[in-house]
UniProtKB/TrEMBL annotation:
This is FAD-dependent protein C-terminal domain-containing protein. The lineage of its organism: Bacteria, Pseudomonadati, Thermodesulfobacteriota, Desulfuromonadia, Geobacterales. InterPro entries: FAD-binding_protein (IPR028348), FAD-depend_C (IPR049516), FAD/NAD-bd_sf (IPR036188). It comes from Geotalea uraniireducens. Residues 281-473 form the FAD-dependent protein C-terminal domain. Pfam families: FAD-depend_C (PF21688).
């Protein structure tokens, strides 16, 4: 039985090939006693700055495991590994009539998981394949020419394609390893399997997405790009098909709907068809940018080792007085702020990094929670109208050409400010950000930033710039589903992922897609068994 050894320390300049030797020295073993030694976890410990170190866990196999465990089994850093049995997937009979709308992480992992059961489906994506989409997005960032169907939110790979590709989630689920391993087979860096905070980077992620597409095509899936699900056909309370681009009909009895949080027209269509929806809370704010060097110094201490990766941070503040919270979100070390609009006349910020995270600035969204009490009316779609209001104000403040409003951090805090340094393209225009954010959000944001300075000395600096507005943090609507993963009002409709309101982030959206696929396969299996 293999076992884990925890708390092995590497300094920044030491590499992982030394770990087997560390295990040997610690337990008095010879090199030939160790059959294998595999790194399974690596995290940074920056508590004693600037002496930052890596803490590693390895999985070992020895020639005499029983003898080793008899001697060291009570060591708190040693733990036998009970290997979980690999998941098994009953092969189901081919089933026509499964359609998946959306090729973000939720839709793609629904498809990959269905394939485990021997099933195939038709994938319908409103945007373009990732290669063409990348060109469309570049054109928008260069010139402000927005394609509402091919942008940072819409297109193959989904919303996270132009991102840092962080693969962290607070959800604990055995399928996390399944997802990471699948991503590695499609070209993701192998270290995502052991890093405590894995990330792929937008450059590698685009290649992974293209790899998944090819695999699905080879497995017999049909993929239709530039195809927007514009209506749902219903017969006797059950999904009967989907209308594409307002004219083509595609029959189906099971419709997995994974449209992401920005498919506002899709939410409206569901509301018109009487699908039960709920307004849900999300968060809004602005992107902050600091020189990465400054964040490194704050997090690692002066004189930190140059081999350390660009530093990250995660900050939170509970504003009891106003009943809100401010927190950092989607932090991108060594990245850029991106224009994430998907609708004409609205400015939306977000962030992305390449795999190497080697841009000069760190960015992060600083956001404050908002909810139905902030919205203009009690309708399920009121959160969308709320987002649109602030996106349009930001558009107008930026000059009406997709430049974004921006402000030096000190000026935002009412102090004498410095200049603007924003990586956002197509550009920024100096603006009082309080005019493009709700008053309650601005107040909590300011209080939060003062609190963050207490956690990270130097966070408040004339070198920091805020660019807004950040509104697409999570879905403003939930497409309510039951325990069977189907809409509570429409049989055969399987809402999935972030747009359905059941996930937030790449990993949790992929996990949700897997859950939906497993539920669908289980229902099908019962049905086929009954035939
Ligand atoms: P999406 O990824 O949004 O995919 C939905 C897909 O459905 C889209 O491709 C869309 O074009 C398509 N679609 C929508 N409506 C229709 C329709 N009617 N017909 C056909 N197709 C339709 N998360 C992280 O965990 N880590 C990060 O580093 C990270 N960075 C991000 C950076 C940016 C710039 C953005 C925008 C998001 C980032 N996120 C990140 C969030 C993450 O991308 C989302 O949580 C995740 O992509 C949600 O997955 P999903 O499959 O549910 O939806």
């Amino acid at each position: 039985m293999p076992f884990l050894v925890r708390n092995l320390i590497l300094s920044p300049e030491e590499d992982e090939s030394l770990l087997s030797g560390l295990v040997q020295r610690r337990f008095g073993l010879r090199a030939q006693d160790v059959v294998s030694c595999r790194l399974v976890r690596k995290s940074i410990d920056a508590r004693r700055k600037p002496r930052v170190k890596f803490i590693c866990t390895v999985e070992c196999r020895l020639t005499d495991e029983a003898g080793f465990l008899a001697r060291f089994g009570t060591d708190p850093d040693v733990q036998p590994v009970v290997e979980p049995s690999p998941p098994t997937f009953p092969t189901l009979r081919p089933e026509p009539g499964i359609v998946i709308v959306g090729m973000g992480p939720a839709g793609l992992f629904t498809a990959l998981r269905l394939a485990e059961y021997g099933l195939v489906a038709t994938l319908v994506e409103r945007g373009q394949p990732v290669e063409r989409r990348t060109r469309d997005v570049e054109l928008f960032w260069r010139s402000g020419a927005l394609d509402p169907e091919s942008n940072v939110q819409f297109g193959e790979g989904g919303a996270g394609t132009f991102s840092d590709g962080k693969l962290t989630t607070r959800v604990n689920d055995r399928n996390i390893t399944y997802i990471l391993e699948r991503l590695v087979t499609f070209g993701a860096p192998v270290e995502i399997l052991y890093q405590a905070k894995p990330h792929i980077g937008t450059d590698r992620l685009r290649r992974v997405v293209a790899g998944i597409r090819q695999w699905l095509l080879d497995a017999g899936f049909e993929i239709r790009f530039a195809c927007r699900a514009s209506d749902i056909l219903v017969r006797e309370g059950q999904v009967a098909g989907v209308v594409l681009n307002d004219h083509d009909e595609l029959s189906c009895s099971r419709l997995v709907l994974a449209p992401g949080h920005s498919a506002r027209d899709t939410y409206r269509l569901l509301a018109e068809r009487g699908v039960f929806l709920e307004a849900k809370p999300f968060a809004i704010g602005a992107r902050i940018e600091h020189p990465q060097e400054l964040i490194n110094r704050i997090q690692y201490g002066k004189g930190f080792h140059p081999a350390l990766p660009p530093a990250e941070y995660a900050l939170a503040y509970n504003d009891r007085q106003r009943g809100r919270s401010a927190y950092s979100f989607c932090m991108c070390p060594g990245g850029v702020v991106v224009a994430g609009s998907s609708e004409q006349g609205g400015v939306v910020t977000n962030g992305m990094s390449a795999y190497r995270r080697d841009a000069t600035h760190a960015n992060s969204a600083l956001v404050v929670n908002v909810g139905p009490a902030d919205f203009a009316d009690p309708s399920p779609l009121a959160g969308i109208a709320f987002q649109q209001l602030w996106e349009r104000r930001a558009f107008a403040a930026g000059g009406g050409d997709y430049r974004a409003p921006a402000q030096n951090l000190l000026a935002f805090l009412g102090q004498r400010g410095g200049g603007l340094t924003s990586s956002y393209r197509p550009g920024v225009r100096e603006t009082d950000l309080a005019t493009v954010l709700p008053a309650g959000v601005t107040e909590t944001l300011r209080a939060g930033i003062h609190h963050f300075e207490g956690k990270m000395r130097g966070f408040i600096t004339a070198e920091a710039t805020l660019t807004g507005v950040e509104t697409r943090t999570s879905a403003p609507v939930r497409i309510v589903r039951g325990d069977d993963f189907q809409s509570v009002t429409l049989r055969g409709l399987y809402p999935a992922g972030e747009g359905a309101g059941y996930a937030g982030g790449i990993m949790s959206a992929a996990l949700d897609g897997i859950r939906v696929a497993d539920a669908l396969a289980q229902q099908l299996s019962k049905q086929q068994g009954a035939c």
